[in-house]
Amino acid sequence: MPMLLTFPGFVAATEKAEDPLLAFGARIVGDDARSRVVIDFDGKPDFSVHYVESPERVVIDLSATAFGFPPADLAARGLFKDIRYGTMGEGSARIVLTAIRPVHLVMAEVQKNEEKGYRLVLDAEMTTREKFAELVKTQKWGEVQEGTNAALNTISPEDQGHDGVFVVAVDAGHGGIDAGASGSSTKTPEKEITLAFAKELAEKLNRQPGVKAMLTRTNDSFLSLSERVVLARQSKADLFISLHADTLGQKGIRGATVYTLSDTASDRMAAALAARENLSDQLAGYSIEVPQPEVADILLDLTRRETQAFSIALANRVVKSFEGQIGLINNPHRYAGFQVLRAPDIPSILLELGFLSNEEDEKLLLSDEWRDRLTTLLTEAIMRYRNSALAGGGEP
Questions:
Q1: In what residue span(s) does the MurNAc-LAA domain sit (predicted)?
Q2: pLDDT tens-digit readout, 267-321
Q3: Burial class (CB in 10 A: 0-12, 13-18, 19+), 287
Q4: Angstrom distance (rounded) from CA 215 to CA 238
Q5: CATH code: domain of residue 217
Q6: Residues 171, 216: contact at Cβ < 8 Å?
């Protein structure tokens, strides 16, 4: 639970400040990879952001503020295990966010509310200990900002200049405690199959000029669905490809399928598959939260429609590359609400390599020769997508 406090050594701002701002509302959404904190004020606040180590904390210094919202509204969750706030010396207040892991703010800005006052919006993402230590080392204290990212000492991936390298995030589905499906004959876990395919695909992509592949996981470790997306965004990925090999109750169904994101599923099978894949987090003790409408753009911002057009173009190229070479399911491009495809600014597909519930597919999924063939065709499809995008500058 957050604590309303007066920091030791200081008198409350309300004792001396003539007209402190009123923080009349607060909310927080997110998970272990990214979280958003929103605080409503009756006037426009000045603020600054700082980072403190041991433990990792984000400190928000504010102009004089009286906190008038219920403490439960800012209960710790997501990336933060403790949240405290209160007045400091004359004319100032502070919010301290204690993190469960190293974090950085990719956005901190004041926005005008439509109905009343302003809101301070803080978007936090996981980062490495090395990058957090660098933030602590390079920051400057005592500089109050008036509403944008100037206090962050960091910028978001979408603000960074592109270095000309085409980055592909290759995501091996499942891992760790989440084994995924298992083969009907050999009982081979899906997590082993997807990792083998991911490593081979990444290796082939890294041989291509101007292309760099990054693996979201390189071993048998668990990653939440949100962590996979954040890792891709932090790598400034141009594409995100998640590899899977599921099972179906109908053992006769076989072949590869390419999925893109949609709030409405293309069919019952796609809806059921997305529901199963989205349960991955719950298996490891995480829960998928539905953000309030006001903060929903932490997952899907205004670039989603354009990104979706590129995702569909990529899916079509993969299907075309596989036709006549790799067995495809009927209607091989389908869509559903896969959480792992929700990067708002990265064209993303989920590729079902085949179905472990089908004996013929299972044999192929375990075949070195077939894996080499499929990853070669997939690499060719990705390169055609890249070359078309670079040549035309529009939808590939």
A1: 229-383
A2: 999 999 999 898 887 766 655 454 444 444 544 455 677 889 999 999 999 999 9
A3: exposed
A4: 13
A5: 3.40.630.40
A6: yes
